[in-house]
Write a structure and sequence with these properties.
Bound molecules: zinc ion
Number of helices: 3
Number of strands: 6
Distance between the termini: 42 Å
Shape: elongated
Strand content: 5-15%
Largest sheet: 2 strands, antiparallel
Strand order of the largest sheet: 1-2
Length: 105
């Protein structure tokens, strides 16, 4: 019998029954499976060290992400809030004289 997931799976989040890691979407889940199809034993899961080496990070809820989308989403939210004049919502306590936003992809 397979144990129930220890984290709540909603939306596109998934659990790999091979390695037991949780993923925030199908993309990192599919990317963490490597190797050749059709040859027994040739497919495997990336290790935690290998995922970290690729720059992947678990999000605040503990689901692996490729580490790219949250930064983009966060920057998009901040830019949107700033455009509405809501510096507090953007995580800025007061309106800066000059604001520079950098996003690394
Ligand atoms: Zn796995």
């Amino acid at each position: 019998m397979t144990a129930p997931p220890t984290k709540r799976l909603r939306g596109r989040r998934c659990l790999c029954r091979g390695c037991g890691e949780f993923f925030n979407s199908l993309s990192p889940f599919e990317q963490h499976r490597v190797g050749v199809f059709g040859i027994p034993g040739a497919r495997r899961c990336l290790t935690v060290a290998e995922m970290r080496a690729k720059g992947w990070l678990p999000n605040a809820a503990g689901f692996w992400t490729t580490g790219k989308r949250p930064a983009i989403a966060g920057a998009t939210r901040a830019i949107s809030a700033i455009s509405r004049g809501s510096y507090l919502e953007a995580g800025i306590l007061s309106a800066p004289a000059r604001l520079r936003v950098e996003v690394s992809l």
